[in-house]
Amino acid sequence: MVFLAITPGGLAESIRLAEGQEPVWCGADAISEGEFDTLTGNNVTRFSYALGEAGRAQIADAVATIKEHHPGQRVWVEDV
Asked: Rounded to whole angstroms, what are the CA distances from 42 to 2, 5, 32, 39, 57?
């Protein structure tokens, strides 16, 4: 499974649940670039754009990108 975190809190929870074993993706507004650069061993990918104010179409595009990188895996999306 793959997690898509939208908020900073959702990202922290996703990282905890993934335990470094599952991929976690997030929007640019879920974690700063500086904080992202310090993450190690958490299998986190950060989009270059924000998702906090995204509509359904932009979330769908993010999920499609994730599916390209993780075909056949279920994607869990944080609902805020």
From this structure: 12, 13, 16, 7, 27
What is the structure's pLDDT at 57? 96
Beta strands in 35-80 (DSSP E): 44-46, 75-77
The whole domain housing 57 covers 2-77
Q: What is the b/e burial string over 30-69, where b = at least 16 CB atoms within 10 angstroms of the residue's CB? A: bbeeeebeeeeeebbebbeeebeebeeeebeebeeebeee
Q: Could you tell me if 14 and 24 are in contact, meaning their C-beta atoms sit under 8 angstroms apart? A: yes
Please give the tally of structural domains in the chain: 1
State pTM to two decimals: 0.94
